[in-house]
């Protein structure tokens, strides 16, 4: 299957400080940014409010020259944004200030259970709005209505009374229809009353089947291994089973001494039967902090699916699954 490589550019990004000034982030959005910034700091070993950029796809890029001790300050700001829900972020900020490494800080941030799809879409929308959209101009006040002259009030009174007569006539027709229905359908009404007061009771409807819960999803590989420090899989648009899903694959690498070949595959799990299928992936030669690749994965027909992307070289690792389909079996 052919793959096409997509390079994330900071030209379509907004500085973190600017984003915090113009947007009021929710606690889930603050936790999402804290995780992405900490993960990016694993490669650059530095991050601060001026050097961190967020692009229109929700990806975080750290510009060169960042403060090596600035990660603690970034986490403190995001913890303040999260308010009462920012306790894990404050703990991560204290760990960063004490000299803990990005991997240890990331393990503290990851203690917050978070489904990344919704915060990712919300942060992406905020960045796109900050880049190219402005608020609409205020609406002009409408002029005050002029008082109608005395000669125009009488026709208006007639126009107001005319619908009232029509409504009264409609009520009379409705009452006549009810009386006629009672006269002609009296026997049927009496039979229904007899049934309600103790006659034959209709058979009870059959009990409805209770939907079965989804099976738990187990990861097919660890979250990091060897030079692979993280793997992320996201859908570029809503996907359903029995279709082909466009996805973005992000592999984070510890900076290698030379370019390495990164290979991956997809593990697709039926969450109702537990059946797991391997779907071929692709490969790319990458250097620096790792590649970002856009590809496609064919999905089988099922009620609910979980899709993992698993790197097979230079080490076997995976990330959070992409959950698709129904919420029950």
What can you tell me about this protein's structure?
It contains eight helices and twelve strands. A hairpin with an 8-residue loop joins strand 5 (228-235) and strand 6. 36% of the residues lie in helices and 23% in strands. Keywords: Membrane, Transmembrane, Transmembrane helix. The chain crosses the membrane at residues 164-185.
How far apart the termini lie comes to: 31 Å
Say what oligomer this is: single chain
CATH architecture of the domain at 10-132: Orthogonal Bundle
Q: What is the residue-averaged pLDDT?
A: 80
Question: Count of DSSP E strands?
Answer: 12
Gyration radius, to the nearest Å? 31 Å
Beta-strand percent range: 15-25%
Shape: elongated
Output the structural class: alpha+beta
Tell me the major beta sheet: 5 strands, antiparallel
Helix tally equals 8
Topology overview:
Blueprint: E1 4-5, E2 13-15, H1 16-22, H2 27-44, E3 52-55, E4 60-62, H3 71-82, H4 87-97, H5 102-109, H6 117-132, H7 150-184, H8 186-196, E5 228-235, E6 244-253, E7 260-270, E8 276-286, E9 292-298, E10 304-313, E11 317-318, E12 322-325
Antiparallel strand pairs: 1-9, 2-3, 3-4, 5-6, 6-9, 7-8, 7-10, 10-11, 10-12
Helix pairs in contact: 2-3, 2-5, 2-6, 3-4, 4-5
Keywords: Membrane, Transmembrane, Transmembrane helix
Transmembrane segments: 164-185
């Amino acid at each position: 299957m052919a793959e096409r490589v997509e390079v994330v550019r900071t030209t379509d990004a907004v500085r973190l400080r600017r984003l915090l000034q113009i947007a009021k982030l929710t606690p889930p959005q603050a936790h999402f940014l804290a995780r992405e910034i900490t993960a990016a700091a694993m490669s650059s070993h530095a991050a601060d409010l001026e050097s961190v950029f967020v692009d229109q796809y929700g990806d975080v890029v750290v510009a060169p020259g960042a403060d090596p001790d600035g990660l603690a300050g970034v986490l403190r700001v995001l913890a303040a944004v999260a308010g009462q829900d920012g306790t894990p972020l404050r703990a991560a900020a204290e760990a960063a200030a004490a000299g803990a490494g990005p991997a240890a800080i990331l393990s503290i941030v990851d203690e917050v259970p978070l489904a990344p799809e919704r915060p990712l879409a919300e942060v992406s929308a905020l960045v796109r709005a900050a880049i190219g959209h402005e608020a609409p101009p205020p609406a002009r006040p409408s002029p005050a209505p002029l008082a109608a002259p005395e000669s125009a009030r009488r026709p208006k009174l007639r126009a107001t009374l005319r619908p009232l007569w029509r409504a009264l006539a409609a009520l009379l027709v409705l009452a006549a229809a009810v009386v006629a229905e009672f006269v002609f359908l009296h026997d049927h009404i009496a039979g229904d009353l007899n049934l309600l007061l103790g006659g034959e009771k209709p058979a009870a409807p059959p009990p409805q089947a209770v939907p079965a819960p989804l099976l738990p999803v187990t990861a097919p590989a660890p979250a990091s291994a060897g030079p692979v420090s993280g793997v992320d899989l996201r859908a570029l648009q809503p996907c359903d089973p029995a279709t082909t899903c466009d996805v973005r694959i992000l592999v984070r690498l510890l900076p290698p001494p030379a370019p390495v070949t990164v290979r991956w595959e997809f593990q697709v799990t039926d969450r109702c039967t537990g059946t797991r299928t391997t779907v071929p992936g692709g490969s790319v030669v990458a250097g620096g902090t790792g590649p970002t690749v856009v590809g496609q994965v064919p999905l089988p027909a099922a009620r609910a699916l979980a899709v993992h992307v698993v790197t097979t070289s230079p080490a076997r690792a995976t990330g959070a699954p992409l959950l698709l389909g129904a919420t029950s079996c």
